[in-house]
Automatic annotation (TrEMBL):
<dbReference type="InterPro" id="IPR013785">
    <property type="entry name" value="Aldolase_TIM"/>
</dbReference>
<keyword id="KW-0456">Lyase</keyword>
<protein>
    <recommendedName>
        <fullName>3-dehydroquinate dehydratase</fullName>
        <ecNumber>4.2.1.10</ecNumber>
    </recommendedName>
</protein>
<dbReference type="Pfam" id="PF01487">
    <property type="entry name" value="DHquinase_I"/>
</dbReference>
<dbReference type="InterPro" id="IPR001381">
    <property type="entry name" value="DHquinase_I"/>
</dbReference>
<dbReference type="InterPro" id="IPR018508">
    <property type="entry name" value="3-dehydroquinate_DH_AS"/>
</dbReference>
<keyword id="KW-0704">Schiff base</keyword>
<keyword id="KW-0028">Amino-acid biosynthesis</keyword>
<dbReference type="GO" id="GO:0009073">
    <property type="term" value="P:aromatic amino acid family biosynthetic process"/>
</dbReference>
<dbReference type="GO" id="GO:0003855">
    <property type="term" value="F:3-dehydroquinate dehydratase activity"/>
</dbReference>
<dbReference type="InterPro" id="IPR050146">
    <property type="entry name" value="Type-I_3-dehydroquinase"/>
</dbReference>
<keyword id="KW-0057">Aromatic amino acid biosynthesis</keyword>
<dbReference type="GO" id="GO:0046279">
    <property type="term" value="P:3,4-dihydroxybenzoate biosynthetic process"/>
</dbReference>
């Protein structure tokens, strides 16, 4: 496997990388967590947007992403909406999941996007194509709590 370079971080080479989640429910909590990550020495920040109270408000989400991107500086930002079916905080329809992720990608504020592999073949393909077109790396995920 070839290493993947995201901002100044080379994933897949050298020592394992540290990814710290941000699970705030408000913009203030999220931005505060983003600032603390700088002190923790994290290699990557994962914004678990399924925890964010205003996630379904596109304008609020983009404004929060702008603030978080500024707070993180050069630390790569992974955008993750973990669905309830895979252990996340919120339910979401498949089409809304795809739109949410594609909109986040198009902002240019995120570096990586987590895509739940079994969300829906068409929607997953759309998210991946959008990510590739915008230079955002894709992390494919599946959480099976019965078998792992």
């Amino acid at each position: 496997m070839r290493p993947v370079v995201v901002r100044n971080v080379k994933i897949g080479e050298g020592i394992p990388k540290v990814c710290v989640p941000i699970v705030g429910t408000t913009r203030e909590e999220i931005l505060e967590a983003g600032e603390k990550i700088l002190d923790l020495g994290a290699d990557v920040a994962e914004w678990r947007v399924d925890w964010y109270a205003d996630i379904f408000d596109a304008d609020q989400t983009e404004e929060t992403a702008k603030g978080l991107r500024k707070a993180l500086g050069d630390i790569p930002l992974l955008f993750t909406f973990r669905t309830a079916k895979e252990g996340g905080e919120k339910e979401i329809e498949t089409a809304a999941y795809a739109e949410l992720n594609k909109n986040a990608i198009k902002t240019g504020l995120i570096d990586l996007v987590d895509v739940e592999l079994f969300t829906g073949e068409k929607e997953v393909q759309e998210i991946i194509e959008t990510a590739h077109a915008c230079g955002v790396k894709v992390v494919a995920s599946n959480h099976d709590f019965q078998k792992t």
